[in-house]
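Worked example (supplementary).
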Amino acid sequence: NAGVTQTPKFRVLKTGQSMTLLCAQDMNHEYMYWYRQDPGMGLRLIHYSVGEGTTAKGEVPDGYNVSRLKKQNFLLGLESAAPSQTSVYFCASSYSQGTYSPLHFGNGTRLTVT
Amino acid sequence: DQQVKQNSPSLSVQEGRISILNCDYTNSMFDYFLWYKKYPAEGPTFLISISSIKDKNEDGRFTVFLNKSAKHLSLHIVPSQPGDSAVYFCAASAGNYGQNFVFGPGTRLSVLP
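After joint prediction of all chains, the assembly is encoded as:
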């Protein structure tokens, strides 16, 4: 069972470069999320989607864009990377939003911006 | 201002003993709580949940207790095993309001053989 798959696993960018992180889920979940994890700060929500073709801002959306063209995929883009975006990024999906529905996470993408 | 707090960054416990991980929250609208476990280089995995209509939920060696008046929950692991060594995150949501989960900063548990 694949569950939630993230690519790539690691990436190093120079300041100002752009990149896209891909998340794919095979559980037919409606809701998908992008989080970042930084030391001592837990997981913070960047953007989320409540269904195909929809996106919404989370707690820390600045500097990121997302797209959900297909139900199973959720893309996170960095248009002009900054050192402050060095982090581990996790994608998650759930059957419903918040209400009694746990999140299923991918294994993360470790991004370093120099 | 952190809505979900885990005030102990780390905890060490002897194998076979009880591990107690604590979590405090400030938002009285939260009505659904989760615990996640995370190993290095992996994503968090769901461990156990509790809704605000209960004060206890058990699953094998794992029990979560909720004290709504104190806005406090705890995860008990009995008996602790070396394989339980991981970072544990507490998360909360106001599910009835469609609010997304808010995570605590995590507690690193080390179970010593």
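Two points are worth noting when inspecting this output. The interface with chain B takes residues 4, 33, 35, 40-45, 48, 58, 90, 92, 97-100, 102-108 of chain A (CB under 8 Å). The mean pLDDT of chain A is 93.
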